[in-house]
């Protein structure tokens, strides 16, 4: 490992021309780390974007196998990072070593999964409609379509996942898989972690012969606007706050050439508790739900922030047990001082709201986050109360009791877009509440039955997205192999001679991929 220097990475080289220096802090003690990081100047942001633009035509035209080898190499480099790396991440985030080691495995596994996607070839979306010269009343020309990379992508690192949603996380992995060079804006909460991972990416790029600007990284709190507005950038990936995502979306939409922003922002992830399940296993549900609310100090984007149940003796008993369990949960250190300040402010707003009652939790004071439970009147959800819909980033949740199914259905009409919704119930009542799952399909990206949302599997079928404000674009996902689609666009070739066609569309099918040929899926030579 090259010693940490705090320099930006531009076109395969380090750069430190800015005059502003930044400090990374120990998340537990607030002591500064020994390295100072150089905020990118406007000229350096421009150079990073131009380096990505220069790399784009070379990188996107590499074979899928070459790009797969690059992703595999990044995964290998990240897996090889030793104890000093893990200690650095723990120090910057206050997350335990076991969590970081698991997240590293998730990050490298995600990269290898996208390498598998590239080798499989279905990401091309190859479609062929062969010519019909004798068709009446008009002949059909030969038409062939596949997908290419959008262009350089700006990626903004997340605070709560220093590896899996950051430097080499899902947005970076899917963009690189698609053939898009990346300019990564490091999160100021874990800049040393970002440098460790960026070094690993650069080593992998050099080892596999990638163009110099395939990956670039910049530091700084005020550089995002320069990056998003740069004409070389063709898409943005973001995980963070609703305010931040909205700001980036506005910047991107008001450019001379608007570009898409794929922002994961705000979700309260409602959990619906059905009476039979509470009667059969209420204590177990209370303990499991308390564990989910407080997992990772509540700093998961899928943290269950709203719990809804039908008024019943079972729900009343559950609520007592749940509050007792939450009162037993320990205080935890958050990712950084800013997160704790935001959490304290959010709790203050909940305490001051006339429609909310505090049910459980010690007073929020000191340098750790105290778990909390509030109860809201159903009228707040019926009226679409703003505060009730806002995510509180931390270990807290709001409970709502509804009179009956009709009131539940009415309340859900006012629910905004979410990443997840969860139904806890017995088999027969899940059938009886099938209408609820149908309604939730219009509101969320993932519906869980008898599980808890604070776990997002990296796989082919996962959807980590949802209608606004969960994300800025409900048509995609930031986790799972479908994430690559965000950074691809279709191109059609009409009446092209076979020799000029991309390999994915040639008659001989040299890539051996499955294609849609005249409306039928085929892997055959034409």
From TrEMBL:
<dbReference type="InterPro" id="IPR016161">
    <property type="entry name" value="Ald_DH/histidinol_DH"/>
</dbReference>
<dbReference type="InterPro" id="IPR016163">
    <property type="entry name" value="Ald_DH_C"/>
</dbReference>
<dbReference type="InterPro" id="IPR044151">
    <property type="entry name" value="ALDH_KGSADH"/>
</dbReference>
<dbReference type="InterPro" id="IPR015590">
    <property type="entry name" value="Aldehyde_DH_dom"/>
</dbReference>
<protein>
    <recommendedName>
        <fullName>2,5-dioxovalerate dehydrogenase</fullName>
        <ecNumber>1.2.1.26</ecNumber>
    </recommendedName>
</protein>
<keyword id="KW-0560">Oxidoreductase</keyword>
<dbReference type="GO" id="GO:0047533">
    <property type="term" value="F:2,5-dioxovalerate dehydrogenase (NADP+) activity"/>
</dbReference>
<dbReference type="InterPro" id="IPR050740">
    <property type="entry name" value="Aldehyde_DH_Superfamily"/>
</dbReference>
<dbReference type="InterPro" id="IPR016162">
    <property type="entry name" value="Ald_DH_N"/>
</dbReference>
<comment type="similarity">
    <text>Belongs to the aldehyde dehydrogenase family.</text>
</comment>
<dbReference type="Pfam" id="PF00171">
    <property type="entry name" value="Aldedh"/>
</dbReference>
<feature type="domain" description="Aldehyde dehydrogenase">
    <location>
        <begin position="36"/>
        <end position="458"/>
    </location>
</feature>
